[in-house]
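Can't attach files on this board, so I'm pasting raw text. These are the components:
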Amino acid sequence: MDYRGIFEDAVDSLRQEKRYRVFADLERIAGRFPRAVYRDASDNAREITIWCSNDYLGMGQNETVIAAMQETAGKLGVGAGGTRNISGTNRPLVELERSLADLHRKEAALVFTSGFVSNEAAISTIARLLPDCVIFSDQLNHASMIQGVRQSGMQKHIFRHNDVAHLRELLAATDRKRPKLIVFESVYSMDGDIAPVAQICDLAEEFGALTYIDEVHAVGMYGPRGGGIAERDGLMERIDIIEGTLAKGFGAMGGYIAANKAIIDAVRSYAPEFIFTTALPPALCAAARTSIEHLKVSGVEREMQQRQARLTKAILADAGLPVMETPTHIVPLIVGDARLCKAASDMLMDKHNIYIQPINYPTVPRGTERLRITPTPLHTDEMIFELRHALVSVWASLEIPRVQADPAITASKLTSGDLTLPTVGG
Ligand SMILES: *Cc1c(COP(=O)(O)O)cnc(C)c1O
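---
Top answer:
Structure tokens for the assembled complex are below.
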């Protein structure tokens, strides 16, 4: 049996579909993000600018966050030393869960090793504990939510993306007596659009469903204290379970859910993904909590991120680059072809020292392959102009068609208020 050949063939088929993934070897420079050292295939190092990081606010290099991690590691050591049940529940982890419950104004919170695990564990466990439950899941939900739905083994209905009329139809066609769980995201990470959260809550109320929202791409970044879209829109108390990550806006690592005590106690007690794994290390928990607490009282990172995102969209759109208009900090640039998308990304790195990972199928539908740009508060105006210059040159070299600038997002639409630099503490 040619075992090795089977694996090689499997990977070859991905190569043929232009879906083979190549990882960039990066060394982020603390204090100088978004700058990083990149090493190419022959290990030659050079400095580049990252334009596709999910460390959305640069909190991964925040000095107080780094100090919290270093100090805690010095005092409590590196690992947690056990599962939550067997000696691993460390003081910084307990404090982190309290900080998260407070962020979302819920009775309790529960931390997992990642956002992926929190979705898989929470959705599957909650659905399994509801007898004969039906799950209603948005068509574009993240892989971790799909995994949770599948793993629950419960009946599911997929509603068209953000389509409340379709969701209503599906709810109305389901036996009123059966328990129902609606799972959706607030900010969808690839198109940067936002769910009709209030309308989904209305439907949940009307049909007696529980609501589960993934706020991974919103926590830290929206709402007066960084509680996400539900906080921004005054809807947190209408959502039963809020899920988030510590790895994106908060710049650390780990995932969580926040909910009432009964739900948290049940997931804590029944989810194998929570029970049979080592607890997060104290230094990481202290770093995450410091980041969360910082963003509860500081709006300057959020304001600056929004400013740089608006400016990036306007400047790229003005150059005839196919920017998708989004109501969020996410700036998708549609290429529409897997080979061209990869080639554009390679050329940006090789010729312009700019790193934007190509996003191809199956992360996005075929024909919508894109460069997903995520401006942070630490991308300067000068960097944005460099990006425009590099993209225009790459678009010309590869003969990717330019478009008529979308009047909704061009620079003429920017008001001076859009471009005012936020002040610290503002
Ligand atoms: C990244 C992501 C997750 C997973 O979070 P991690 O902490 O990275 O595991 C969950 N949901 C969505 C929508 C995501 O984009």
